Structure prediction request, 316 residues.
Amino acid sequence: MTKKLCTVLLTALAASPVLMAQEPACCGADCASFAPKKGQWEVSLMLGKSNAFYNENNTYLLPNITTKGSSIGLPNGGVPGQNSGIGSGYLNHYLQIDGFNGNSLVNILGVQGKYFWQDCWSVSFSGGLNIGVTPQKNYVEPTILDQDKAGDVTMELPSQKYINATATNNWYVNVGMERYFKTGNKRIFPYVGVQAGFQMARVETREPYTGKMINLDDYSSTVAPALGADVSGDLVEEQVYIPAGKIGQMFGIKGAAVAGVEYDLMPGMFLALEFQPVSYRYDVIQIAPQGFDHYNLNHHNIKVFDMPTLRIGFRF
Prediction:
């Protein structure tokens, strides 16, 4: 990954005809047009790995409850008699926490905005929101149209599968402050700063009428019979015993130091390489089946040299 970033930066630098200009650089209105000035805005596209659970498939947060042998927790959790739970404490996969090499230049993290409230001092903001809603659809039993003398079905209308009502809500927001510094090259501006962020992912489902039934004679699971069929035994809907509503969510709070360098390709357009020298993140996972107590998990993560990010954008 480091080689890829270096290749992109060297290619961009080689394209500039005044790369080797060594005119003194500074910040403010009296300096070269490349320097950030008070009152300017900066908008950039971020490329790399976000380590965020924004836009991810979070269905593993939903509890899997049946009439027999149910358990609540993450898929890799320990269950007596089923698995040893050796990996039950490893949550990085669910929290989207990767190493320094888990990166890609083709992955778009989002858009970052900055405002220079003083010469060489900026405040930054980035965020995103992804909401999805799926209305429910009830199960429709098949309808028997004709039977032979032996009672076997010879013609029937097909059943219609049910769809769970589902709502997902994923979002994140980051705010920060940066200080830019002068160098011997009027196009190069290193900077350092701090950043704080919050992210959340929530998925909620509710089953409609599913056609799943419980036979009270032997408490076995079955499917609702076709309309017009002979029914043996006393059948009740499975939702009498299993809650229809399920909720899962996780949220994370992060604080980090930020360091990077911007290279101005031309007045108003720049390329930047950024990373976090040190960061701390606290995450909580909650699984909440209807009618039961919440299943809570906590996680702490401290990283050194995290989130290498390539930014390309405009300053105006």
Residues 209-243 form one domain. The mean pLDDT is 78. The radius of gyration is 28 Å.
